[in-house]
C-alpha cells in the first residue's frame, strides 16, 4: 500500500496507478491559471457613500498599477482546489484527524465549479455565495477567497453568455460590492487576508461585472417553431402557478398582454402568499381595496419586506447524520448504481440524509 501523506494524521494525497508506477494527482489548479489573467483596470474612481473621491486622478494611475501588480502576484501563486463530491465534517481534533473542517476548506474541496453548470444547482450556489458575501467573506482563508472569486467569475461569464438568471447575479454583486466598500473604508477595524490593494482590485472587478450586466441586451432568437405565446391559456396559467418568486411572475407578465392578464390573477397571488407566509402574518399586513377585496399582490411584496420567503431549489447539498458527511447527491446515479453519493455505512442510508440549505451550510461551520 503506498504512503499517502507526510504525516500519519493527515488525510493524505490522492494517487493514481500508471504504467510507470504510482503517481500523485495534483490539484486542479492548472485549469484556473488561464482564468486568472491580469485584471484590466481602467482609470475609474471609487466613490464613498457621500460621493467623495477616495483617490485623486493623479494618484489613481500609480495606485492602479500597484494593484495590478499585487493582484497578478496573488493570483499566480500555487492554488490548491479540489473537485470532491463529499467531505467529512469534523468539528474537533482527534488522534486520527488534526484540526477541524472550516467553511473555507469545505468551499475549496466541494465541487462548486461543476455545480454552477447544472441548472438544478445553479440557484443554490448563487444563494450560498450571496450569504457568504454578506457575513462570512472575511472568515475565508486566502485560498478560499481566490476560489470564491474564480467561481463568481465563471457565474458572471455564464450569465453573459446564455442570458439566464441575470437578476440573481445582480443581487449577488450588489451585496458583494456593498461588503467590499465597507471593508475597504474600515481597513484596520477588521482583519483582511491579503494586501489592501488586492481587495480594491476585487471591488473594481465587481463594479466592472455590474456594468457588463447592466449593459446586457437580450437578443431575440428567430425560430419558426412554437413559442411561449402559442400555448393555450390554461397551460400558460399552469406555468405561472408553478413559479415561487413573485418577481419572476411580474417579469413574465411583461412579455405579452395575455401573460400580463394572467399574472394579475388574484388567485395566483393568493396561493403564492399562502405558500410563503402564515395566517398570522396576513392579519398584521392586511391590504384591502376600495371595494373591500384583499390585494394579494400588494400583500405579497409587503410581507416579503418583513418576513423571509421559502427557498426552493432543484438540487442541494445533503448531510448524512450517520457519517457526518456533506455531499452532492446525484439522483440519476443513485437510481442506476444504487450509489448514495458517499461511502455510507448505515443500514438505511436514505433515512440519514438531510437536505442542506445555504444558511444551514454556513451554520455547520460555526463553532
From TrEMBL:
SUPFAM superfamilies in the record: F-box domain
Subcellular location field: Nucleus
Keyword DNA-binding annotated: no
Alphabetical GO biological process terms: protein ubiquitination
Any one GO cellular component localisation term in the record: cytoplasm
Pathway involvement of the protein, from the record: Protein modification; protein ubiquitination
Superkingdom of source: Eukaryota
Keywords: Nucleus, Ubl conjugation pathway
Main function: Substrate-recognition component of the SCF (SKP1-CUL1-F-box protein)-type E3 ubiquitin ligase complex. May play a role in accumulation of expanded polyglutamine (polyQ) protein huntingtin (HTT).
Name of this protein: F-box only protein 25
Gene name of the record: FBXO25
Amino acid at each position: 500500500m503506498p504512503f499517502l501523506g507526510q504525516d500519519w494524521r493527515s488525510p493524505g494525497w490522492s494517487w493514481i496507478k500508471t504504467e510507470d508506477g504510482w503517481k500523485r494527482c495534483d490539484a486542479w489548479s492548472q485549469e484556473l491559471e488561464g482564468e486568472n489573467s491580469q485584471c484590466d483596470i481602467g482609470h475609474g474612481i471609487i466613490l464613498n457613500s457621500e460621493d467623495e473621491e477616495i483617490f485623486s486622478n493623479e494618484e489613481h494611475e500609480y495606485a492602479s498599477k500597484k494593484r495590478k501588480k499585487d493582484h497578478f502576484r496573488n493570483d499566480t501563486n500555487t492554488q490548491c482546489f479540489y473537485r470532491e463530491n463529499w467531505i467529512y465534517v469534523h468539528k474537533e481534533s482527534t488522534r486520527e484527524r488534526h484540526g477541524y473542517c472550516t467553511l473555507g476548506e469545505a468551499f475549496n474541496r466541494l465541487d462548486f465549479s461543476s455545480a454552477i453548470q447544472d441548472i438544478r444547482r445553479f440557484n443554490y450556489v448563487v444563494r450560498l455565495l450571496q450569504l457568504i458575501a454578506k457575513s462570512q467573506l472575511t472568515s475565508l482563508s486566502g485560498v478560499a477567497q481566490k476560489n470564491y472569486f474564480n467561481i463568481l467569475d465563471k457565474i458572471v461569464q455564464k450569465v453573459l453568455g446564455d442570458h439566464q438568471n441575470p437578476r440573481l447575479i445582480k443581487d449577488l454583486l450588489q451585496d458583494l460590492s456593498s461588503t467590499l466598500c465597507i471593508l475597504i473604508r474600515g481597513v484596520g477595524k477588521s482583519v483582511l487576508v491579503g494586501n489592501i490593494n488586492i481587495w480594491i482590485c476585487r471591488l473594481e472587478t465587481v463594479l466592472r461585472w455590474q456594468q457588463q450586466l447592466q449593459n446586457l441586451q437580450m437578443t431575440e432568437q428567430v425560430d419558426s417553431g412554437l413559442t411561449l405565446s402559442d400555448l393555450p391559456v390554461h397551460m400558460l396559467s399552469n406555468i405561472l402557478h408553478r413559479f415561487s418568486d413573485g418577481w419572476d411572475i411580474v417579469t413574465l407578465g411583461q412579455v405579452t398582454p395575455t401573460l400580463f392578464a394572467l399574472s394579475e390573477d388574484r388567485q395566483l397571488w393568493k396561493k403564492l402568499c399562502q405558500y410563503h407566509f402564515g395566517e398570522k402574518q396576513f392579519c398584521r399586513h392586511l391590504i384591502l381595496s376600495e371595494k373591500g377585496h384583499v390585494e394579494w399582490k400588494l400583500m405579497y411584496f409587503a410581507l416579503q419586506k418583513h418576513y423571509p420567503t421559502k427557498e426552493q431549489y432543484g438540487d442541494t447539498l445533503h448531510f448524512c447524520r450517520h457519517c457526518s458527511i456533506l455531499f452532492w447527491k446525484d439522483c440519476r446515479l443513485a437510481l442506476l448504481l444504487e450509489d448514495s453519493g458517499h461511502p455510507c455505512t448505515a443500514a438505511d442510508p436514505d433515512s440519514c440524509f438531510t437536505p442542506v440549505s445555504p444558511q444551514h451550510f454556513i451554520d455547520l461551520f460555526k463553532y
